[in-house]
Amino acid sequence: MVLAPQLRQSLKILQVPAMELRSTILEELAANPTLEELPYDDISIEAPEESSKSNEETAPDGDRDGSDEPEPAPASSESSESLDFSDEYEVLNRMGEEWRDYWNEDAGEMPYSSEDASKRQFFFDSLTTGQSFQENLLEQARMVEDDPEVITALEFVLGSLDDSGFLTSSAFDLALMSQLPLATIQKAVKLLQGLEPPGLGAQSIQDCLLLQLQRKGLGKSLAARIIDKQWKLLLRRRIPEIARSLRVKPTEVEEAIEEIAKLDPAPARKFAEDNNQVIEADVTVYKDENGLWQIILNNDYIPRLRISPDYKEILAKGKMKGKDREYLQNMFRSGRFLINAIEQRQQTIERITRKLLEFQADFFEKGNSHLKPLTMNQVAESVGVHETTVSRAIANKYIRTPLGVLEMKYFFTPGYQGEDGREVSNKSIKDRIARIIESESPRKPLSDQKIVSILKSEGITIARRTVAKYREEMGILPTNLRRQYA
Questions:
Q1: Does residue 183 sit within a domain?
Q2: Which of 192, 221, 297, 425 could cysteine-pair with 201, CB 3.0–4.6 Å?
């Protein structure tokens, strides 16, 4: 319980994107007098060509000089100067036995014992995320739901919400990605739809508005009937046609539309932070002149920190007693914890990126149509962490690739196995459906069943309703509305 605030801080550091990380660290820097930010000019590095960038040459198989363990991220660890502990050992003789034990632990390569590291990892895997909106929803959920499996499923569902509060993945896809039972995911979606603000967890604006009317007790009202049965006429504001089809007066339709206008078509947007920002990639991957993939972490926004030698000297002289001495010791521990948390964040992102290069090698080489199905659990097992750690590490993170800047969660997608045994992601299938429709005759557009036949001829067997679902998710109209008569 004493360490919980620091562990929550570590979770926040793990989760925030590159451009928010600096301000997060500077807040702690301002609150902790024992921390110092080193100017880049003051950092002496023995091999500047190699350590000036936190990249390692890697082939898609993940080998790197015979080791899978990443090097410490230079931007988040202490400088080579601050890692020289010869001066500290000289002053140890002037320090008390209690502080000597602490400093011996602090001066090693790892600031914690293996038991402490295990406890720290446990908290990383179990504490809630630092995003205020998601945390608020999880807090609401825990007040009405005591099944831990449903709460875990809700975390995955929240990761699928867009800025408006709509689900970007179906319950079926979320079940595949999270490897949780479909019924549990459906319970989590139902739970989300009962939280505040109303309208969250819908698949479309139409569903969102209906959810809000149901929460108002107007699920069978004229407004709900108009949204449910005459949505297209409502969008064109065809009041007379709506009135005739529902056998009501035009004035009643107008009153119902006024009620609809009071609803929020984007219930989560009011909670979203300012999104009018430049996206900065947290990591870049590219192929060098030797044909090897390189990983470069974005360290531009990470202050280089060290524990102040002046405060070390003050404490070593033994003049501080009681609460003042205890306060300074706590600040030292907090500072070391922060430095380690930053380093672990960078290492985790680097290791996950390395595995993405390994699992999605065909995508990086050949493009979107070669994206393979991939779950967070697969990467978690390969990296050696819990899948919720992977979920937090990729949240709000972007990766710069030769194919553009992409969200890291883009690479995690369910899929299908073709008749030839090859795995195909649903994103690849969507891309293929879009290209099939682009090539169709405008006067004779292809039906969903015809698209099913084309995909089957290519070794991909999916249901017609799946094609219809993917087409709707891409905003492609049905056959009769795509047909052009002139």
A1: no
A2: 192
305 falls within a domain? no
Contact 163, 272 (CB under 8 A): yes
- 263: Cβ contacts below 8 Å, ≥ 6 apart: 199, 208, 209, 212, 213
Q: Which residue has the higher pLDDT, 278 or 8?
A: 8
Instruction: Calculate the dihedral angle through the C-alpha atoms of 190, 191, 194, 197, rounding to the nearest 10 degrees.
Output: -110
* Count of structural domains within the chain: 2
> What pTM did the predictor assign?
0.49
What does the buried/exposed string (b/e) look like for 456-482 if buried means 16 or more CB atoms within 10 Å of the residue's CB?
Answer: eeeebebeeebbbbbbebeebeebeee
Between 96-110, 176-190, 470-484, the lowest mean confidence (pLDDT) is in 96-110
Least confident of 4-8, 154-158, 460-464: 4-8
Write the CATH number for 442.
1.10.10.60
Question: In this structure, is residue 437 part of a structural domain?
Answer: yes
Close Cβ partners of 265 (under 8 Å, ≥ 6 residues apart)? 164, 205, 208, 209
Domain endpoint, select from 266, 284, 317: 266
Q: Is there a domain that residue 257 lies in?
A: yes
Last residue of a domain, one of 248, 266, 284: 266
Residue with tokens 């995955």: 156
